Input
Amino acid sequence: MKVVPLISTGYDSNVYVLIGERVVVIDTGLSEESMRSRLRGVVEPEDVEVVINTHAHLDHCGGNSLFENAEVMLHELDAEAAKSGSFYGTASLFGAEGALKPGKLLREGDRIDLGEDVLEVVHTPGHTPGSICLYLRGRRALFTGDTLFAGGSFGRTDLQGGNMRQLAESVCRIAELGAEVLYPGHMETVRGEEARECAEVACQAARRLL
Ligand SMILES: [Zn+2]
Output
């Protein structure tokens, strides 16, 4: 299986396309238009079977409408914010509209079968109540959404539903996983020793803020 990172510019989120026996997209950016242009030359939208949103902020869900035939997966605690179209206030923040119809609601420990690989759902609340990371254990690679970024920075908790105490627990839990590749929701991929340090630095910094 191949992981194709589509790194964002501006407020848009990163998008990750997993191409193997099944084609899976993790997060869809700010809008259908931007999703369509970013996907060009990678895969056809019709070939995407599963869309997973790491959390219900509009800059991660706005392109979902491009994937009409895909099954949409989201943590159960973020489902209401997605269905209502409020996206915890980020719809008005970004001046955009949209609403999701999640097909499958995820929980801690769920396993998403990709054929030759499995994505494990790690519930990491704090940035939103239903924020998740997705772990490819065989590759020690973790898709961190807006929970953890390069350099040991982490997601904001001042939006609706944010909780700093939960976020601190979540980044410390990520540090314990010992992932060797981090694919964050914004900014570049982090690898090797830097990935381990990044999670450890974030854990210590987040705890200091409590
Ligand atoms: Zn977010």
